[in-house]
Specification:
Two copies of one chain form a homodimer. The first copy, chain A, has 199 residues and is mainly alpha-helical. Chain A has nine helices and no strands. Chain A binds a DNA duplex (30 and 30 nucleotides) through helix 1 and helix 3.
Amino acid sequence: MQALKSAQTRARLIDATIRVLVRSGYSRTTTPQVASEAGLSRGAMLHHFDNGVSLIKATIMHLHERRLRAFRRAAERSAQDQGAMVRTYWKQIQKPAFIAFHELAVAARTNSDLATVLMPLQVEFRQRYNQLAVQLYPEWQAEPGTFALAMAVSQATMEGMAVNLLTGAMDASLVEPVLQSLENQLHALRPALPGDQCA
Amino acid sequence: MQALKSAQTRARLIDATIRVLVRSGYSRTTTPQVASEAGLSRGAMLHHFDNGVSLIKATIMHLHERRLRAFRRAAERSAQDQGAMVRTYWKQIQKPAFIAFHELAVAARTNSDLATVLMPLQVEFRQRYNQLAVQLYPEWQAEPGTFALAMAVSQATMEGMAVNLLTGAMDASLVEPVLQSLENQLHALRPALPGDQCA
DNA sequence: TAAAAAGCGGTCATGAATGTCTTTTTTTGT
DNA sequence: ACAAAAAAAGACATTCATGACCGCTTTTTA
């Protein structure tokens, strides 16, 4: 029973970390902030995570798991409705989890402690991403290069758009047209079928 | 003469700030770091900028000016070589200035001091961006909506790809194919000319 | 039931960044 | 050459995040 309670408290701390990351950004995310947000004393918090970096690392791994699960759900849903992949991923990207993950990814660029945790997860995500998608869309299997391209274009466009929205670099009214355009592009990239040369 | 020296010192401090932002990230960019990087004492630095936020604000404005100049050059070059816009912007995006600007843009999301400076500049950039591009590519003027879409797609895709490269979310071998695909997409978006329905 | 372990709260000293202030040095103008 | 102004350097107190340590309470276990 004490193991369960411990796990619950750890989860509470990680959730609090995500909220603080979204609200205050990485640079203002401090251990007192997280402890307060979780409704715990700082002393209790340091009992579950030896130091602040340890908490951030755990948060990174937690967000990674969530991202994998979210992508799996998105893939399953879009297996039924062929064109739903773009919309489903776009919905995922707008949740707080993505904002927090982006904050950590940016921080990891200049923090080797975080980078050693985050970089392998990024590689793993790409692998699973492609692996699952290929088995869901067998018509792509003949052209793995084109498939990887389609995935990269989707990821770069949607995540770039999400970041640009957050930083005011893009007008919100353009979101829908860009998504539509991306869907058209993905359609054009699909392996040629009989009578499909012209849009 | 003292005004010139003062301006030079200010420029040195701003350049130092950019280097520190690239090397250490926003969260570890401190006034002692910047002063040391600029080869000045902290006291001297605070003589030119009242406080740390003031220095960051000046850096934001400086990067904004550079971004406008860079875009202007890119536009002029791509006016001669029609398809060079993508490549030229991609080159710009990989420079340290973009990394520093991105760090500041992410920080501005949760820092109202920076946001009040950055947000209006983002709006101004979008306006000038479209303004200049429209006059360079007159064939788009009939379809301003499609043109804004093309710009948004380009910006989101390339900046998203740049960020994903920095954070390890994308494999570097996919850069070239994505750029190629983006060029194709832009070509497809161009106003229909006689005998241009099919790729 | 006693002992051990874990959850939790609180206190402490340390280190570092910040902004203000004062002092020294250099430059400028008369 | 000298006095005023500006640049540069340094000193200072304050604030705050951090990690370590100690004590209390509850739960598990022997």
